[in-house]
Amino acid sequence: MVLKTIRTVADRWQHGKGEYGHIFEPYVGDECIALDLETTSLDPESADILSIGAVKVRGKKVVTSERLDIKLQKPETLTAESIKIHKIRGIDLHGGEALGDALVELLNFIGNRPIMGYYIDFDIAVLNRHIRPRYGFSLPNKVIELSHLYQQKVQRANPELQPDLHFEKIAEKLSVPIMGRHTAVGDAITTALMYVRTMQGNIPL
After folding, report:
1. What is the span of the domain harbouring residue 88?
2. 21 located within any domain
3. Which residues contact 126 (CB under 8 A, 6 or more apart)?
4. Name one GO cellular component term (predicted).
């Protein structure tokens, strides 16, 4: 955490007046961005991005009309083994965008809003591995982890309870429909719905 803070301060000093300087400004508002990636592996040091899904949450509303659903060009690291993880085939990526273009879209969509997701640190690590060499900075946005937020809300009501933090189990407990599991935009929307439900008040134990 200390290292990240130092790096963000250095990035802000170097890029704060540049093209993406606005993302280093403190966010004021009630929006966040639910984000999900589909990748070639579960190793953030080597995973390539296959698709990006993001949707805006405004207050207690998931704004599905304001979302990103980007498929990328097929990377060389897409193998039969990786397809078992995400079920995305090479043919499914036909006509996909170049990674650089997709990152520009994503940075413009997120701005300086908080980024929320399920095990979001993985997605942030993968994105930063591609963003930093191109732009010279890592994402400085506040990050909200859905599973931590859900666990805190459950244990605030019952400190002895250890909730099941699997994606499907959280959705089931919150009575949230799963929208296109293992698609980036589907998982982003589902995560956004779970976040809104968790923030609304008491949740089922």
Report:
1. 27-199
2. no
3. 37, 39, 44, 47, 49
4. cytosol
